[in-house]
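Handoff note, outgoing to incoming analyst
You'll be picking up this chain. Sequence as last confirmed:
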Amino acid sequence: MHTLTPRLAATAIDAARHATSYDVSAFHTASAMTGTAAPGIGALVVIVVIILVMTGLARAARSLAALVSELLRVATAVTSVLLTTVIAIFLGIALLVH
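Most recent structure output, in case you need it:
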């Protein structure tokens, strides 16, 4: 942070100095050269939206995986109790029959 602040300040001052004293022909030449190479603002917005959607989907997938894991843990516990109950009932009936 201590090295970033002076660099940002120097860059802002240089940019302000450059913005107040530019040559119009140089500006048009530079914009003509970079106009086709740089993506438009629309493409940048689309890329940012795609990244945000993918981040949200990843977070939702992690939450869903945790939920499914908990549901499977509960299902195994219920199955274990149910199986134990069925075995106990079966043994009780077997003892009563004899």
